Every structure is written in structure tokens, then in C-alpha cells.
Amino acid sequence: MTASSFDRRSIPAGASVQRWTAPDGWQLRAFAWPADTASPRGSILFQGGRGDVFEKYLEVFAHWHAQGWTVTSFDWRGQGGSGRLSAAANCGHIESFDAFIADLGAFYADWQAATPGPHVVMGHSMGGHLVLRALVEGAIAPDAAVLVAPMLGFRSPFGPLAERMARLLGGVGDSSRPAWKGNEKPYTTDTRASLLTHDPDRYADEIWWQTANPETVTGPPSWRWVIEAFKSMRESAADPRLKALKVPILMLVAKADGLVDARASLRIAPKLPDVRVVAFGAESAHEILREADPVRNRAIGEIDLFLAARAQRA
Fold first, then answer.
1. What's the topology of domain 16-310?
2. Which branch of life, at top level (predicted)?
3. Which tens digits make up the pLDDT trace of 246-302?
4. Helix, strand, or coil here: 288?
5. Could you tell me the pTM of the whole model?
6. Domain residues of the chain, as ranges?
7. Contact 233, 152 (CB under 8 A)
8. Taking Cα atoms as reference points, which of 51, 295, 57, 80 lies closest to residue 184?
């Protein structure tokens, strides 16, 4: 699991970048890396966060692929290589998070039918929130799920007033306009790099991919995205179906996360009937799986143990 000669800046041999068409005709950019063994370990669908592209996770995909997993991912609608939904070319806009859930549910159905089991769905940040919500709503039903630094609350200096402020500010004029400029997080002096990872080389990989494929770069979210994110997180946290969820879940939480509120994850976890929580301290920023090796290796080790115990082949 330590750094190797794997090339993090090229699509690996045997993998492909494809287009998947949603039921409404929208095309999403997808990544597929079938297991190259006669006896596959199973299949992983990995979903990144807001503004992510699947290329950021090639290194960890290679780890699971080497263990015999088929690995799949797609860029969320309106970001990365899956088009834009606003006039601002790099703005991550969505009218409702319901659209994300619809895409995930439809993609999952096709993916599950076409890939070997057991089936595991993983989500980082916004992807973690959407995976959990899709599980609760019955849009997906994998054998196991992993939530990595899930976006179950925002770290905001405005506390409980943040959602109200977003609605006031974003409700004036065109809500598809960018909510802020530049950084991942407004009202902060922290650099984007320090918010994401302590590993400068892995951070540089993302910048390399942005330079190589500038059309996939996603900038700040729209005000509508911010408003809908608050709404979706609030409603999900209060959903009584959390307590009835049967899918085993591993939740990785970075307590020092400067983007999402780790406390929200730790409040929701006890509601889940079958969950294991692994917490990291100041050693980890938001992108746990793209952190320095001591953090990344521990996280991958926990995922591997979880999969061995809870995602066994029939």
C-alpha cells in the first residue's frame, strides 16, 4: 500500500473511459476497469466528491484492482467530464440533489447487472452523502458500503445560521451563479491544498490532471447547489429510515476536516444498525485516501479488513 511505481497520471492498461447515458439522455463520463482474473473478487463502484474526477483515485483503484476487484466510477452530473448545468462553464450547479440520486440509482442498476458480485459502493465527501442517502431511500442495495469523509454537514463559521444565510444570499437573482470564487471553502485563509491533503505530490496529481484535461475542471458550486446541499443533508440526518438500514457500512472520519463537519458524521453513525467508524485526528485532512502514506495506508487497511469480513463471495 506504500508508494509504488504505479503511474498516477495515466489511465491504466485494461481500463477505459466511457460514456453512460442516463434515462433522461444526459451523458455521464465513466471509468471501468474490469478484474483481469478468472475468479473476480467482486465489484466496487467508487464515487468522488463535489468537483472530483475519477482520475484522482487511480492509485487506490489500482490497489483494489490488484486484489481482483472490478472497479468502476463516474463523474457526477454537472461536474468533471459529465457536462455543466449552468452558463458558467466551470460552475458546479444542480437544481436538486434528487438528480444525483436518480443518476446513481440508474447507473447502479446497470452496473450491478453487468459486473460480478459481491457489490460494494464507496463514496467520498459529497459522494459519501449521496451513497448514504441512496441506501436509505432504496435507490441502491449493495452488499456493503464505505463512506469516506462523508459530507453529512458543513464546517461553517455561521453555525446553525449557515443554511438560512445561503437561502437569503442565493435566493436573490440567478441561483445558478457561482456562490464564491477560488477556494474550496469561503471565509477561510487556509489554502485549498491544506484543506485536502498533507501530501503535496498527490495534490499535484490533481493539478496535473486539470492541466491535461481543462474541460473537466469544476470550480465553485452554484448557490442552488449550496442550498440543495443543506436541504439534502438536513433531511437525511432526520430520516427515520437510517435506523432500519441493513447494509453494513464502514465510515472513515477525519476529525480535523476543514470542509465537512466530522461531528455530523459522528452524530449520524449511532443511528445506523450496522456501522464501524474509524476516526483520524490532525494527521488527516479531507481527502483521506489521498493523504500521506501513514494515513492512507491505515485507511486502505481498514477498508480491506471490512471488505474481507462483510463483502464475501457467495
1. Rossmann fold (3.40.50)
2. Bacteria
3. 999 999 999 999 999 999 999 999 999 999 999 999 999 999 999 999 999 999 999
4. helix
5. 0.95
6. 16-310
7. yes
8. 51
